[in-house]
Amino acid sequence: GAGVSQSPRYKVAKRGQDVALRCDPISGHVSLFWYQQALGQGPEFLTYFQNEAQLDKSGLPSDRFFAERPEGSVSTLKIQRTQQEDSAVYLCASSLALSGSGNTIYFGEGSWLTVV
Amino acid sequence: GENVEQHPSTLSVQEGDSAVIKCTYSDSASNYFPWYKQELGKRPQLIIDIRSNVGEKKDQRIAVTLNKTAKHFSLHITETQPEDSAVYFCAASSNYNQGGKLIFGQGTELSVKP
User: Fold this and answer.
1) pLDDT tens across B18-63, in order?
2) Most exposed residue of A70, A77, A96, B43, measured as fewest CB within 10 angstroms of its CB?
């Protein structure tokens, strides 16, 4: 596709509900990242995939957060038993390179999650 | 781990003036420093980046400088226009084998008054 696509764009969840956020990276992009952006803050790293392998999940805030990319393209971020502090924009990003820094990372528009 | 500090948090300038945003980083292994512009409700968009083997890079009205010794880098916008108004984020990357994940600063809200 033309860019990183995320769905849903907006999600309101009741506290305790499970949510799933989808990311379609740019076609052919090997690296995929998930970031969490709270209101008025910079994006914070959650997890990184290289193809289907989850190589870094050090940023996931708790075991309620789970991410997968089973076929090395589309990724899903799942949040179980949502809590109010999970309210944020969840940004997906991708880059072409297999490894190495200095490769342009492209962001999606984000999924806005509000937990009530 | 890497930490990136960004200042100021808000910046207001008159149209035509220059704007400067500064960032410092903690990990001396950092080697890639992009700047993103984010308009309200929109995705962060890369506006310029610099690698550690150069000290300055310019693209029209935007320039970035890097001081590796002091571990700081700055964004300079000249001849500011109202459409430059947005939140700007600096970031640093040092993890070569992890796809180069970015660590972001806290953001600077730039307001350009016509």
Assistant:
1) 999 999 999 998 888 999 999 998 999 999 999 888 899 999 999 9
2) A70
Alpha carbon distance, N-terminus to C-terminus of chain A: 33
Q: Using alpha carbons, list the distances in angstroms from residue A113 to A8, A91, A110.
A: 9, 11, 9
Residue B29's pLDDT is what?
87
Give the phi and the psi of residue A94 in degrees, each rounded to 5: -140, 155
Cβ within 8 Å, pair B97-A99? yes
**Are the CB atoms for B96 and A99 separated by under 8 Å?**
yes
Residue A44: list chain B partners with CB under 8 A.
104
Q: Is A22 helix (H, G, I), strand (E, B) or coil?
A: strand
* Under 8 Å between Cβ of B96 and B35: no
Is A97 an interface residue toward B (CB < 8 Å)? yes
Q: How far apart are CA A88 and CA A78, in angstroms?
A: 14
Contact B31 A102 (CB under 8 A): yes
**What's the rounded mean pLDDT across residues B75-88?**
97
Q: Which pair of structure tokens corresponds to residue B32?
A: 């890639």
Contact A109 B104 (CB under 8 A): no
Cβ pair B43:A107 closer than 8 A:
yes
